[in-house]
Inverse folding.
């Protein structure tokens, strides 16, 4: 064995595990108490942003914003959760994370939540609040001792990576959406900046300057809007004249033709975030773990809708030609309690677990000859297995056993009135059978003849649910 020599040359490996230089480590930085105080403000902003993004999903008409808010609400929940864990490691029981961090911050976030439309909201969140959050995180990393406080720095560096993506999206969104009364919105954004200054900045480390402005949009208490809204591309949203599940499970039809149905079902899943947003907003009594888990599932469902959009592009089919129904989210949001909505969601998820569920959809996609269909259904299946597990963790435990939880979900869904005939009688839709038209166009695009049997498909949702179970209540 070679003898260790103290005078040997030492390789120039970075010191301190690469966290920082020796000179940086010699700077004392902040105490644990100061770090915790700062991190609690960051947590407060992340948590409120999660709630605000989620609360806008249902009523936001623009598909791109609806899906972006679904994603960004989850991102905010993830970073709030990471900070909750980190703060809990820093001698902070009880955590006190539900306390308002500062009246000025509360004002800013209340105003943001109450912004009257998506365009105004985009100006405030992407033009003022998220840049301030990014700056406060950067300042924290520069101010703390990167060796002593390495776990916090790691959490915050990840946060900045995702903030970069959010801010990039926000820059483009602010330029794209039309703002009514631009001068008024500019003045409102300036008021947000004024309130941040009065709070000592988002970090609270700066000397407070000025006073909190009078409330504008948040003069009246914010109220969640349960009614889903869609932009003009979503034609005939009450239309339930085609039952895609009936086509999917009919052995007469080819896997290639069934990809049209699979991508329609994926795109239609935008109604799940519209419903799940109501579940989160109206379940304030649930623990944080419930909100973080459901935020993940909500985003997954929005991602599935985006897969549908991409799938139609792969098939060279314009999805705007197809009525994308929204009455599932509308009816659940307006007819059921939050627990009942969760019960229906869990019941549907469990129905997708047998071989006739997500596995079957994946097998159809595999046999279709459409590569992107196979990939999307593969991941869709994986996501739904996760969602089933989340349901067992956050829903089933309220019941004596799994069967009781499933039975309750079935009962709740059976009580939902589909109002199929009422929508037609009210002139909201004719329940037009759009399938032959869309299928014919797809076949023309593909350069293949239509299957005569597929072309004649004409089954509706008038008397059956999406799981093909007969509707027992009023149609």
């Amino acid at each position: 064995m070679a003898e260790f020599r103290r005078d040997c040359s030492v390789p120039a490996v970075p010191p301190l595990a690469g966290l920082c230089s020796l000179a940086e480590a010699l700077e004392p930085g902040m105490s644990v108490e100061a770090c915790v105080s700062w991190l609690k403000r960051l947590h407060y902003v992340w948590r409120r942003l999660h709630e605000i993004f989620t609360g806008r999903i249902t009523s936001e008409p623009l598909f791109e914003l609806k899906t972006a808010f679904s994603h960004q609400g989850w991102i905010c929940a993830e970073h709030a959760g990471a900070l909750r864990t980190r703060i809990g490691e820093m001698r902070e029981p009880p955590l006190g994370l539900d306390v308002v961090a500062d009246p000025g911050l509360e004002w800013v976030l209340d105003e943001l939540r109450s912004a009257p439309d998506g365009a105004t909201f985009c100006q405030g969140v992407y033009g003022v609040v998220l840049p301030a959050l990014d700056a406060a995180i950067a300042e924290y990393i520069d101010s703390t001792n990167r060796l002593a406080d390495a776990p916090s720095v790691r959490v915050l560096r990840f946060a900045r990576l995702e903030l970069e993506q959010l801010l990039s999206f926000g820059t483009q969104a602010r330029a794209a959406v039309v703002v009514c009364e631009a001068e008024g919105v500019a003045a409102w954004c300036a008021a947000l900046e004024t309130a941040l200054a009065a709070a000592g900045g988002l970090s609270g480390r700066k000397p407070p300057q000025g006073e909190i402005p009078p409330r504008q949009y948040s003069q009246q208490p914010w109220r969640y809007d349960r009614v889903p809204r869609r932009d003009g591309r979503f034609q005939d949203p009450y239309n339930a004249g085609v039952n895609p599940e009936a086509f999917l499970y009919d052995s007469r039809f080819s896997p290639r033709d069934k990809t049209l149905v699979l991508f329609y079902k994926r795109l239609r899943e935008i109604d799940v975030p519209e419903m799940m947003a109501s579940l989160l907003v109206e379940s304030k009594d649930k623990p944080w773990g419930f909100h973080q888990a459901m935020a993940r599932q909500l985003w997954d469902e929005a991602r599935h809708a985006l897969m549908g959009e991409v799938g139609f592009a792969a098939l060279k089919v314009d999805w705007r030609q197809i009525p994308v129904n929204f009455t599932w989210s509308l009816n659940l949001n307006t007819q059921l309690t939050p627990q009942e909505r969760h019960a229906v969601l869990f019941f549907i998820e469990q129905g997708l677990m047998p071989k006739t569920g997500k596995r079957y959809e994946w097998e159809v996609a595999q046999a279709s000859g459409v590569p992107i269909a196979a990939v999307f259904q593969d991941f869709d299946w994986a996501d739904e297995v996760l969602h089933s597990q989340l349901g067992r963790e956050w829903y089933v435990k309220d019941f004596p056993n799994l069967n009781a939880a499933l039975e309750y979900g079935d009962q709740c869904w059976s009580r939902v009135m589909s109002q199929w005939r009422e929508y037609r009688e009210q002139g909201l839709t004719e329940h037009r059978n759009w399938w032959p038209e869309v299928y014919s166009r797809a076949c023309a695009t593909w350069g293949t003849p239509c299957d005569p049997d597929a072309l004649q498909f004409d089954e509706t949702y008038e008397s059956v649910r999406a799981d093909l179970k007969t509707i027992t209540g009023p149609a």
Observations:
- The chain has two domains: 29-198, 244-455.
- The first helix runs from residue 22 to 25.
